[in-house]
User: Fold these one by one.
Assistant:
Number 1:
Amino acid sequence: YKNGHTTIYLDIKTHGWFYFFISIVAMIVLHDAYFYWTHRLLHTPWFMKHIHVVHHRSVNPTPLAAYAFHPLEALLEGSLAFLFVTVFPVHIFAFTFVTLLVLLLNVLGHSGFEFVSQPFRSGKVGSLFTSSTHHNLHHSRIHYNFGYYFTFWDKWMRTLHKDTFQ
């Protein structure tokens, strides 16, 4: 960051606390949209056959499946982080928080264990978010449940599996 090749900053006073928290929300929302659409791309016939199949060999995933992917998929998914630190100012702690959240949710999403109760998951608030069940269904029903944090893309694009909240 010191050489000016990124927009990372260290002093919170540079943009203030409001911007700090808004940047976290923005990164999460942008990542969710980016992930949904790149994930859909990875499920097109060519990408599935040559790239994303590596990840989907885990039909009943474990936390290690979070790291099972083709190098080109890693490049595609990781390129958003590059954009975050080169396009708009981001505090190092905001970027680190979102990066750790992505890592944690990826491992939990592949854990094969549901951490959230079914009544909450199917309720008004809980049904807005993805869960381990959501992603586990994706591995067994590959045309459904592409979202990362939120279910609204799956709802809007009619890719939410009917058993997601069961």
Number 2:
Amino acid sequence: MIGLYWALSYLMGNFMTAYFVGKVYGVNLQAERSKNLGARNAGNVIGKAAFVWTFLGDALKGVLVVWLGYLWQLEEWVMIGGAAWVIAGHLFPIWLKFNGGKGVATFIGVGIALSPSLFLWMIIGTMLSLVFTRSLTLSMVGGFIFYIGAIIQAGKLEPYGLLIIAIMCMLIKHMSNIQESLKRRK
């Protein structure tokens, strides 16, 4: 059952909302601006409505994976693994030659669905970091630091291990944005 759930989670992550939103608007987002299939690029290229639809679609797939885990009464660590796999599917969709989005909206969906109290620390860390950095990209890094710190503080490092690996993959996908934001601060 675990393998089936994780495989299904990865495949659900492969649903790239931005790809289909782009099709509706007649735009290939993989050829525009950042070439990323995510809400931010959809919003920058197409507009606010495209951002909202992409964000909601990507977050929803994260929520659905966790909801299925609850429905099937899976253990916490299995659901957290599913959360990591849906993010991996978004980052590395097989049908797009492993070139997907950056995973933030999907992470928000799984983070809220898994543990709103832990996710609150992500929000607090992001907001505090935003005050000091004035950069959404850098404040996201601060949010992840707070989130992982909250996981450690709650004594949940072991069950959340795969999700932390997924977060590291997200940060690697964001590396060019992080470097650009750091250059602007100098």
Number 3:
Amino acid sequence: MQNLCLFNTRTVSLGNLTGANLVRRFAIDIDKQIIYLLTSHSIYSLTLDDDKLKSIYTSPDKTTTIEDLCYLSEINHLSLGLSNGDLLSLQFEDDLEENINTIGTLEECIHELKLSPDQQILIAVTNTKVLLLSTNNDYEPIAETLLDTNEFGEQQLVNVGWGSKTTQFHGSVGKKAALESTVTVPTQVRSSDDDGRSHIVWRDDGDLFSISFISLTNQWRTIKIFNKQGQLQSTNESPLNGCIESAIAWKISGELIGAAMRFNNGQKLTISFLEKNGLKHGELVLNTTGYVEHLAWNKDSTILAIVVRQQNDSSLQLWSSSNYHWYLKQSFPFPSVNIQAIQWDIDIANKLHFITNNGQYRSMTWSWTSQVSYTNTRSLVFLLDGCHLFVSDFTHSSIPPPISSYEILCPLSILAIASDDDHDKLILILSDRSLAICGKSSSLTDYRTIIHLSEIKSAHYVTSLISSSDSPIKNIHNATHFRLINQQFFFIEESHLHIYNLETKTKTSLLLNFQCLTTAIDNEETKHLYLQDEHGKIFRVDNNELHARMHFPRPCSHFSVVLNEQFVGLTENYRLYLNTSELAHNCNSYFIHDKTILVYSTLQHQLAFRSLINNQQTAEISYRRTGK
């Protein structure tokens, strides 16, 4: 029961890389923190350490465009695919002009290049064929395969006829009806939103890859799965009353291939999931009139990023699946902006890089957080799902999501929440920057509270609204770390900590000379907000000033302020700290009970209790579920 919380953003202007000189694709050198940007005729490098942008290659032939690029980190090469079919290699040892080599040619426009996860194989694809090259042997060809064939593949499915027409009773029409062949033909052979290009996705182990292409024979988009030797394994089943669109991504864990598909004559847009044998295995239905332009799984397969395009507007959506339900965790609108390309970071699981057509490089980083509001009499857990906020009241029952004790329904997607435990107040931050303020009275017309559990006598209702024009938030893409203390609403935007008074409608701002990693609130009678920087240093906000309090040995992804201004912190590497002392190096979660007891669990299925009064371990319980 966790939400995605945005905690870090970055925007870099790309100068005049707009219009005719628009960035179309990009590649990342993670080690050197360099972004390679591709326009129609040039390659640029953006150094993230100093935001320096420079041109590193320009095509001498203006009649030929650069279609795609791929960075090979092990040999420090940049491979380019051209519209005339040429494959180029840029080496970065010395002078670039002396290190531009032609690898080969496919004699027709290269649509995409993709490197295998182990960086051993480079694939180039056109609209009719695919070429596999070995990066270890000076780009020696491994295989060249035609795409548009009638073959299904080596993993041909065997149909034994159970439930088919031939095994059914046909009454008066006789046995001849069972022998009549039926051919399923999609009523819509090709989507009007299809980009017309071939696309490549690798499975994370590097044994299989998939290509989505448009057949020149029947104009259907088809998905074929190959092994790393270039041998066809399987082909997707044709969608009934629908068609496949161009967006495709292979889940990093290797289970499923996600592809945009339309059904019901184009009225139903889905992300359909295919197994490696080409058969459909579930779907995610998207409620939009636009189309899916980009699709990408993050490093650990917990987040599916979807870019939905509608005319000149784009929307970045982050989805997550749990308990057989898909949750829309984040939805950021980009009005009058097109997202050109997206790519998840390979080191930081929840960091997304993307380029927009208004000449900007952006990165956004999220963290998984359990958002809980608890007092001596009540314990609530909040779960976001698009326009819905599910609230589970554990005082009465432990209902698993997507079921809840009650839910709040808003007209727009909810990006974040901020709660005040003492005053039972809740603020919903909506995707248009407006703030929906919740209390205990009846809700506004466009906002509904639906109670699912009869035992619930007190629920949250949207009682007032701060519109987007009056919102203290200026840019919803850069606003992070939302907190609420009494009547003060805290958030960070553009390197400033903003404090907005809900009663007086006034805002004060503090300049931060550090990047805030996470925040916490103490449990004292007079509450304070605490900030942790990227190095683990803790600051307290007091009278609109920052005061340094303590420094963790390592930055902690989660921390709490406990009795007598002590600090408990947990790193992403399972290290648990009490102030500067390490309590455990195998902790996966912790909880503060009654302000005096620290309870934490370990990777070895142990539960430990430690007193925060005398700093002594009071008990330890070991339990392992056997499944019996």
Number 4:
Amino acid sequence: MKLIDRVHAGRQLAKKLTAYQDTSAIVLALPRGGVPIGFEISQRLNLPLDVILVRKIGMPGQPEYGLGAVAESDVEILDQKSMMVFGITKKSLVDTILQERAELKRRQRKYRQGRFLPALKNKTVILVDDGVATGVTMRAAIKFLREKLKPREIVLALGVCGIDTAAELEQLIDKLVCLNIVPHLHAISQFYQEFEQTSDEEVVELLAKSSKLE
């Protein structure tokens, strides 16, 4: 399915998630690109919206290649297999990890005014992003939820995902709802006609608008 933009993706996903309408579920979006999608889902299903903060740990000299990720509450995952292949030690990633943790805290202040997520124990979480390539940041988000907040159910809602990554993530969650599962995912943007960067200001605006409508 070719998507017009993130708003379109959110509306299409909402159609597949109607079983959660008017329930105690909560929509958690990964900033920044997941937030416009999460907003559409939350509005159509009458659910609260919040953000879950995760940052990719990029390879030194090639930051777009994710070797791991950090989430809130000092949750961290590292791709040990890739690190061995490229001869990278955790010590060589320390500066990058510290930088990403600082950015995570900045976003926490910006998006949530420093507050933590609400209690999610025994609730359903609809975890949202515009797409997943390697899955490293999403695995960190899921680990954070499972270990720290213990929801009853995690539903992953995505615009696009690679088939191998989807199979891996399905082992960690309760349900996957994805508009495009493809054999070879080279770029998430390929599946969107419009794929402009979402700004901090847009994230803050959508979160504020969502809270007013609750």
